[in-house]
Amino acid sequence: MGVTYFKRFRMEIDLTRVRLTAPVLPAGYEWVAWSPAMLGRHADAKYSSFRAEIDSEVFPVLGQSEGCLRLMQEISRRPTFLPRATWLISHAPGEGRLHDDCGTIQGISHPGGLGAVQNVGVAPPHRGLGLGRALVLKALDGFREARMVRVYLEVTAQNTPAVQLYRSLGFRLTRTTYKAVDQPTSTCTIS
């Protein structure tokens, strides 16, 4: 076994100092508020969003359908789980067809007015439409409603589009860390 180190950024936003725009979804997309009945749908959207991405290497649970379900169960059972910062985006592809859950975000609250964004994900066929921005803005509204003053998230440094999105919304880099991941190789690498 070898070890790969993935560079991760912790980014924060001060909700008292930024002006955020209202989240907007393109035609055919809709918000689905959190309810326990949505747990499986969030897990499916999370799996669709992360299964073939760098984050499934950093966190292998994201590359497994059952892992995403367990993760959603764990997140939603926390006493600090914040339903008002937890959203699903669904797409109705056409009349009479089933909805396609294509975006997900979850929120956690911490003491002192600190919120944490968990797993912003948009499925590949739905990227480039502003859904990631809309998810983060919708969650930030929920954090504000819950009287959070600051919100943080963590992102893999190689995920350039996500890092750029967060910066454009007002998130600032506060810390760089490295996550060690066992890999079936004989070398040590840094990504």
How would the blueprint of this fold be written?
Elements: E1 2-14, E2 29-33, H1 39-50, H2 54-58, H3 65-77, E3 87-91, E4 100-110, E5 114-122, H4 131-145, E6 150-156, H5 160-169, E7 172-183, E8 188-190
Helix pairs in contact: 1-3, 4-5
Fraction of residues in H or I helices = 25-40%
Supply the CATH superfamily name.
Gcn5-related N-acetyltransferase (GNAT)
Tally of contiguous helical segments? 5
The CATH topology, please? Aminopeptidase
CA distance, first residue to last residue: 17 Å
Q: What is the molecular shape?
A: globular
Main β-sheet description: 8 strands, mixed
Which class of secondary structure composition applies to the elements? alpha+beta
Q: Can you tell me the CATH architecture? A: 3-Layer(aba) Sandwich
Uncertain runs are none
Record field, number of beta strands: 8
Strand content: 25-35%
Mean pLDDT: 92
The CATH class is identified as Alpha Beta
Number of domains: 1
* Helix/strand order: EEHHHEEEHEHEE
What radius of gyration results from the CA coordinates?
17 Å
What does this structure look like?
The structure is a single chain. With 191 residues, the protein is α+β, with helices and mostly antiparallel strands. The protein has one domain (2-190): Aminopeptidase, CATH 3.40.630.30. Helices cover 29% and strands 34% of the residues. The protein contains five helices and eight strands. Strands 1, 2, 3, 4, 5, 6, 7 and 8 form an eight-stranded mixed β-sheet that branches. Strand 5 (114-122), helix 4 (131-145) and strand 6 (150-156) form a beta-alpha-beta unit. Helix 4 (131-145) packs across helix 5 (160-169). The radius of gyration is 17 Å and the shape is globular.
